[in-house]
């Protein structure tokens, strides 16, 4: 009998799957370009480091490392329930908001269900859909790189099961507004599940036009949030979701029981109570964003108003973006080209500490000086 090829064990949609490619690491770039110091402005992390309160709580939790954590994450969920005036049954936590997104895809998608989203929304989402053999149907962003909610509503068919919204959107940094969201929700049938990914909501919260999903109570909307961005805990892997208790209960059934770890739960609980850290993080981010915005205008680099902790720059061509990405790395700055997100002329830079932002601007200035205008 001929020996079967191992690849035949792997379903076709997994064989063809292009995995998520994360931003380059500091160590990789240091080694490749023989650099003493490198700044990473590629993954929208919090440049302040984790809150000290969270580090302390995590250290204390290490002593219980031989025990499984509370699978219901009660202490953390109680605090979230208190903060957002919700019942425990409406809240789930997971290994990052992406962990919950993975559970959503597993629970709700099957067969020939159709999924709708924008063509340049958070990249992790279509990859998760493809793990179920489903290719999302996408509508273009509008001319301001914003979600086109009208076009999304018009694209709904009898097979549409789920719509993924990302607000503010990664990688563009833009938002859709309250009035746009209100008009959109009026057109959404109750049988369609809407995911509101609000990974960056803390950075947009002061904008009165931002539709904070806590102000709404739609039965068919699940909100996802994270401790990875404003709370500085990306490496700990804690995200949370809010929704109707029947939907949340279904998610608990498929979620891996002991995620997030006990150390991560303890860190998140402490971070949630650390308003000083959050205020400082938002302040540093706003100052850095204002500085980078001014400097990009001075250098005549096109960028759009961002409601997040990163900025998206738009250049003339993909070749130019690849050139800038490489030249910035040679000068010790890691950014993120957006070709995989369907925006080949765009480059994303995360807001760093003041000295990191300056280093990026100095390197960018040196590079664009040598380019023909407009770039
Ligand atoms: C829009 C969006 N959603 C979700 C995530 C995943 O975040 P995490 O799994 O760390 O909570 C990210 C990470 O960059 C993101 O940008």
How would you portray this structure in words?
With about 375 residues, this protein is of the alpha/beta class. The chain has 14 helices and 13 strands. The chain folds into 2 domains: about 10-50 and about 275-370, Aspartate Aminotransferase, domain 1 (Alpha-Beta Complex); about 50-275, Aspartate Aminotransferase, domain 2 (3-Layer(aba) Sandwich). The chain has helices at about 10-15, 25-35, 50-60, 75-85, 95-110, 125-130, 150-155, 180-185, 200-205, 245-255, 260-270, 275-300, 320-330, 355-370; strands spanning about 40, 90-95, 115-120, 135-140, 160-165, 195, 220-225, 240, 300-305, 310-315, 335, 335, 345-350. Helix 5 runs parallel beside helix 6 and helix 5 crosses helix 10. Pyridoxal-5'-phosphate binds near residues 96, 98 and 197.
How does the SSE layout of this entry go?
Blueprint: H1 12-15, H2 26-33, E1 39-40, H3 52-62, H4 74-84, E2 91-94, H5 96-108, E3 114-118, H6 124-130, E4 137-139, H7 149-154, E5 160-166, H8 178-186, E6 193-197, H9 201-204, E7 221-226, E8 239-242, H10 245-254, H11 262-272, H12 275-298, E9 302-303, E10 310-314, H13 318-330, E11 333-334, E12 336-337, E13 346-350, H14 354-369
Parallel strand pairs: 1-11, 3-4, 3-5, 5-6, 6-7
Antiparallel strand pairs: 2-8, 7-8, 9-10, 10-13, 12-13
Bound molecules: pyridoxal-5'-phosphate.
The site of pyridoxal-5'-phosphate has 14 residues, from helix 5.
């Amino acid at each position: 009998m001929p020996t079967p090829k191992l690849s035949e064990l792997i379903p076709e949609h997994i064989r063809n799957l292009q995995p998520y490619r994360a931003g380059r690491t500091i160590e990789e770039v240091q080694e490749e370009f023989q650099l003493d110091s490198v700044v990473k402005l590629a993954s929208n992390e919090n440049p302040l480091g984790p809150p000290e309160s969270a580090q302390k709580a995590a250290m204390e939790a290490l002593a219980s490392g031989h025990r499984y954590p509370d699978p219901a994450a009660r202490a953390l969920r109680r605090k979230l329930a208190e903060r957002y005036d919700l019942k425990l049954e409406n809240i789930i936590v997971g290994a990052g908001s992406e962990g919950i997104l993975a559970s959503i895809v597993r629970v709700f998608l099957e067969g020939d269900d159709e999924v709708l989203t924008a063509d340049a929304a958070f990249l992790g989402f279509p990859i998760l859909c493809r793990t179920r053999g489903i290719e999302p149907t996408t509508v273009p962003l509008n001319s301001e790189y914003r979600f086109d909610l009208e076009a999304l509503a018009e694209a709904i068919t009898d097979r549409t099961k789920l719509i993924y919204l990302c607000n503010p959107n990664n990688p563009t940094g833009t938002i859709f507004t309250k009035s746009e969201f209100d008009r959109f929700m009026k057109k959404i049938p109750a049988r369609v599940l809407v995911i509101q990914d609000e990974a960056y909501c803390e950075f947009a919260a002061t904008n009165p036009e931002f539709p904070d999903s806590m102000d709404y109570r739609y039965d068919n909307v699940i909100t996802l949030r994270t401790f990875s961005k404003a709370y500085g805990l990306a490496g700990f892997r804690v995200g949370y979701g809010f929704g109707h208790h029947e939907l949340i209960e279904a998610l608990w059934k498929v979620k891996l029981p002991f995620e997030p770890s006990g150390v991560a739960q303890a860190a998140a609980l402490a971070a949630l109570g650390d308003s000083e850290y959050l205020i400082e993080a938002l302040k540093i981010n706003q100052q850095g964003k204002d500085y980078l915005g001014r400097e990009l205008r001075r250098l005549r680099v096109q960028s759009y108003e961002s409601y997040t902790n990163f900025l998206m720059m738009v250049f003339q061509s993909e070749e130019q973006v690849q050139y800038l990405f490489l030249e910035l790395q040679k000068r010790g700055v890691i950014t993120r080209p957006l070709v995989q997100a369907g925006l080949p002329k765009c480059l994303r830079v995360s807001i760093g500490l003041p000295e990191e932002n300056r280093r990026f601007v100095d390197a960018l200035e040196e590079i664009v000086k040598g380019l023909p205008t407009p770039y």
